[in-house]
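The protein record now logged underneath.
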Amino acid sequence: MEVLLADVYGFCFGVRRAIELAEAAQREGRAVNTLGPLVHNSQETARLDAAGIHPAERPEEITGDTVVIRAHGARPDTIDGLKKRALNTVDATCPFVAKSQRIAREFAGAGLTLVVVGHPGHPEVAGILGYFTGASYIITEPHEVDELPAGITPGVIAQTTVNERTFREVVERIKARYPGCVVENTVCLATRDRQESARELAARVEALYVIGGRHSSNTNRLMEICRQSCPKTFLIETAGEIDPADLHGIKCVGVTAGASTPDWLIGQVVERLQSL
């Protein structure tokens, strides 16, 4: 059985940078907490926790002297509160997310109504909304544009990990309804590259494994994209989830991974597939 890897997969720049910053602080002998899990991957979070980098879901749960703001970013009032507590605050916000935050603040100054194409409750979206004052809306699917109020001038941005095709479809409908809208495509380059690479791979294989956390937004988008061309697409977190029966008669299998999936997990899955 041939095992093919996507051209682009695994850790993105923002996630890798956040982990490196957290590990650097820990090597300095600091007691390190992260505000929320540093990555949406349970196995990597467990590895970091064992190394002394502990997640805290809420600011009041922070017990160390150093806190790392994860790549998803955080609300400005949350960061200000941490600094007032005299905590050593390491801002590992992904530069692409920081760009979205800056644009949201600019939209507020221009009197626009913020429309984020993304997922309600996602930590990146929650952080972005903290940089905007005024009415804001979160759109997940194109048909939801019809539910926006009349008489507004939308300023449109994207959660960095959304499916870019969905973003474009939403923008088309918004432009048709609100000709004066302002649009900034903030889908990050890493997300675009992974999605296009996964789409290309899915068209070439008989089965495909997407490796990543089931609660990871970008991993779930990869799975949706792959299943459009390769119905036999499986989302797994570890090599132990591979069922050989699923690969009966398969001669070519593909592998890709979400932006929060570490290299060591990907290596284990590839090794397992090659052993079958």
